[in-house]
Amino acid sequence: MDIEQAKKELEQLKKTVAYHSYLYYQENRTEISDYEYDMLNNRIKEIEKEFPQLITEDSPTQQVQGMASSSFEKVTHTVKMESLLDAFSYRELEDFDRRVREAVEDPMYVVEAKIDGLSMSLEYENGRFVRGSTRGDGLVGEDVTRNLATIKSIPKTIKNAPRFLEVRGEVYMPKEVFLRLVRQQENEGKQPFKNPRNAASGSVRQKDSRITRERELDIFIFNLQQISDDVSVTGHKQSLDLLKSYGFNVSPRYSIFDNIQDAIKEVENIGRLRGKFSFEIDGAVIKVDSFAQRSVMGSTNKYPRWAIAYKYPPEEKETVLKDIEVSVGRTGVLTPTAVFDTVQLAGTSVSRAVLHNQDFINEKNINIGDKIVVRKAGDIIPEVVRLAQKNSEGAFQIPLVCPSCGREVEKTDESALRCINPDCPRQTVRNLIHFASRNAMNIEGMGEAVVVQLADKKLIRDVADIYYLTMEDLLTLDGFKQKSAQNLMDAIENSKKNNLDKLVFAFGIRNVGEKAASLLCEEFKTIENLINADVTDIIKIDGFGDIVAQSVVDYFKSKNVLEIVRRLQEKGVNMVYTSTVESDVLKGKTIVVTGTLPSLSRDEAEKLITDNGGKAASSVSKKTSFVLAGEKAGSKLEKANRLGIPVISQEQFLEMINKN
């Protein structure tokens, strides 16, 4: 390769990495595997090693990936939150050892598992947790203190603490919690998170800390960033032992060695155990133990020279595709699932993997009888990677009839097939599960297993039937005694008092989530008004377009739905919306909050906006009524000035809502 070819490939690689970094760090989603992303970065390193004159400041090898979101207040890190240099072979670990020994004498190495989560800084003053922030670009992160405070394993106070302490850790979602969340998202017809890391990131960076609390996140602390001089710490292992004594969950497995070969054996041991951990890891980290030696070695613009991360390659297995089963979800979408000869992946037996849709099957060109390659995405969710050997003709075609009710399905877009039969049995069960779920009618004790039993016994066929159940009905269910039956009856009765927006969300109207349900109820107030609304009425609501409006109108056109509403009313289910708005002084106003306000956090300011009838938006547009700006307002303030949108201070805002 000559320098011009290298330059061309490097520019394309940078653009590709930048695109996937944005998805990963800002939108909490991925289009490629972690391994594929690592290989892109590794290729950049190879080209830059051969042509060092092509290294530029914007290269992924020269800067920490990620950036601070404009949704949260920015935090400037006193101690830079650096990335780690990645290694993909033991030879690279030996080269690391050689470089270390050229710089310092007799190094000791600490080896620990590399948790795959979201890197965080936690700060304590006199033993009290005062601030938590994301890594961002290493220099500037996001203030997510309120959300981190919901994580039970983060100590809020520390006994016998130093005057100041800053630690770094990895927030993660346990595998069991992640799988439960994915099942819930699938039942509710939502796009599920692809891996626990994205789920953790999306959960921490929520404007509503209650959502973070519900996601059951956890954290491991793996580094001491700063500590006041009233405590003396000289090495990494000593610091982890100290932090453990303060009550932190520190790296779950860390050992110290005096040579690289024993350190590599520990890397191998961690790799063999990775499938047995309750959390996801993507590698192991080797660090020089002595802080004094670390100081001598220093860092590049991006990496500390005293640490390296070994990344485990994804485990892939070949197997034979025995069958493709097609199921129908709550929203009617048909989903194909591959059934194959059982293989061992990441410590567990795997025999099934979702194939997503017809486009995915066509792209892989797979059919029953073919030999395929499978792996676990993030060591958790099985996926089909590619075709290994073609033993059939063409790609499998999903039948154009519903596997549950036998009715013809419709192709609603380029990739999805949907059953539109409202009486489809499988959709009915999933609708019942969604209706009773926590964010909908919140009928405690009516989970999936109970709903399936009730449906199998034909005790419920639609959501209204729930309110006609008797104690005698419930006592016929497996595992139900007098007390459990009474508890469920009480939960059903309590759910009748829910505000109308909970019921509207529970109906599972296509394209209508929790926020849209609230806006609909805020506008129309009663179920009768909502039933009688037409598309023109609905699209007047800010943020509603033709597609969502038509979904609502079509839903309430159904005679079956109207009969369900009538039966719910007959049983006393609330059909009126009680507004949580304190006043309508900001009705019709869209306000964007930016910068640091004198005494209000962004969450508090936005709650005041919605409590007084306004809409809190995250971005400035021509529809914005005001921008509520504090110090360091940045680009949103600039855009407001450019568009001629009025800018108000906290004092003016509080005067508007009569809070001064």
- Largest beta sheet, briefly? 5 strands, mixed
Q: How many structural domains?
A: 5
Annotated CATH architecture of the largest domain: 2-Layer Sandwich
Backbone CA Rg: 28 Å
**Tertiary shape:** globular
Strand adjacency order, main sheet: 2-11-10-3-9
Count of discrete alpha- or pi-helical segments spanning 4 or more residues: 24
Uncertain segments are 66-70
User: In total, how many beta strands?
Assistant: 22
CATH topology of the largest domain: D-amino Acid Aminotransferase, Chain A, domain 1
> What is the CATH superfamily label of the largest domain?
DNA ligase/mRNA capping enzyme
As a percent range, the share of strand residues is 15-25%
- Helical percentage: 25-40%
List the helices and strands and how they pair.
Elements: H1 3-26, H2 34-50, E1 74-76, E2 86-87, H3 90-103, E3 109-115, E4 118-125, E5 128-134, E6 140-142, H4 145-148, E7 164-172, H5 175-187, H6 196-204, H7 209-214, E8 218-227, H8 236-245, E9 254-257, H9 260-273, E10 281-288, H10 291-297, E11 307-311, E12 316-328, E13 334-345, E14 348-354, H11 358-364, E15 371-377, E16 381-389, E17 410-411, E18 417-418, H12 425-436, H13 448-456, H14 471-474, H15 482-495, H16 500-506, H17 514-524, H18 527-532, H19 535-538, H20 546-557, H21 559-570, E19 590-594, H22 602-611, E20 615-617, E21 626-629, H23 635-643, E22 647-648, H24 650-656
Helix pairs in contact: 1-2, 12-13, 16-17
